[in-house]
Amino acid sequence: xxxxxxxxxxxERLIAGLKGRVPTLLLHACCAPCSSASLExxxxxxxxxxxYYNPNxxxxxxxxxxxxxxxxxxxxxxxxxxxxIIPCEYRGEDFAKISVGLEGEPEGGARCMAxxxxxxxxxxxxxxxxxxxxxxxxxxISPLKNAGAINRIGEELxxxxxxxxxxxxxxxxxxxxxxxxxxxxxxxxxxNYCGCVYSKEERDRRxxxxxxxxxxxx
Length: 218
Prior knowledge:
The chain has 218 residues and is an alpha/beta fold. The chain has helices at residues 7-18, 32-42, 60-76, 92-99, 110-129, 147-161, 175-186, 197-217, and strands spanning 24-28, 47-51, 83-86, 134-137, 164-165.
């Protein structure tokens, strides 16, 4: 019987082993709210380069709005060690390609797994290209994301690209709660769907169901 790994504890042990050394880290950022607590914590121990690669986000205006909020957060959030951002153009076609045949998958299913891999692979490539020691993602701060699957994908890509994957489950240690607090403190835009057209459709369907249910009670 295999034991469930505690990626949060693994990260704590790794940080303790740094003994004051400040490695470089490529941090894939999905949005400003998720990045807030992630950066507050990780920038104490790493010199961070952010990669905003999210071809799943639709429409492009939503993509731009989330990027602007991330850039504003970087200007306003204090950090113990440097935080930079790696430019990345919107490439919605990347997500469209990996979604073929997976359009009917439920949220959290095979399409989401493919999306995790798409974004993490770009992060691993960028980390290698820029000579950074580690890579990871802010995605694990969300209680709606599968942190175990995200870490397993990261470890596979670490072997493929020869860059260390930083284990994480950033929602632990009240990370998710802290992201909500910081979002309020900085007035960050908090989107109400993951980003892709499929999650938007799911959100709209649930809102319609709630509206119909409330109407039935009147």
